[in-house]
Amino acid sequence: MTESQRREGWPSGTWPRRTERLEIRPCTQDDLAAVWEYRQLPEVSRWLGPAPQDREAFDELYLEPRRLGMTLVMRRLDDNAVIGDIMLKIGDGWAQREVLEQARGVEAELGWTLAPDFTGQGYATEAVRAVIDVCFGPLALRRVHAGCFADNEPSWRLMERLGMRREEFSRKTALHRSGEWMDGMNYGLLAEEWPTP
Hints:
single chain; alpha+beta; Aminopeptidase; eight-stranded mixed sheet
């Protein structure tokens, strides 16, 4: 995605994406009440980077245009319920100075959150698979990556189900808000490794 496309929004026809059970689309201000409902739960917020303590702080964080612009929601088709969200953060690859421009906007960091009532039913796998299809399709990215605390087994298992490669297991690399230094895991996937539909 070029810098001008990033400023103007997503390339035409990128969103929404429909899967068998879900619609994935950019988050709007109207979605924030539903997103807050599951993100405030202790079993969910324990794994999140930012975890605002009240709705006002949550809205302030998510209404910031850059954050809202990289947040997608998962909406169930049968009842229109927002059941999760996905971060799609497009960024630059590392490059030497002479080829710096060729590395701009070529990869994405992914992250996801799912309401506890919908875990274990394949929704997150279905949604993240659809977002990776977009990354390697319309967005023409070369690489996606994601990370998590090593204790967050459902998250790294999802990455492995999708065929992402474990690229790093780091010992006590991340300070959790509990005060404990935790192990971290990072996974990656290249466009040429992703099966085309």
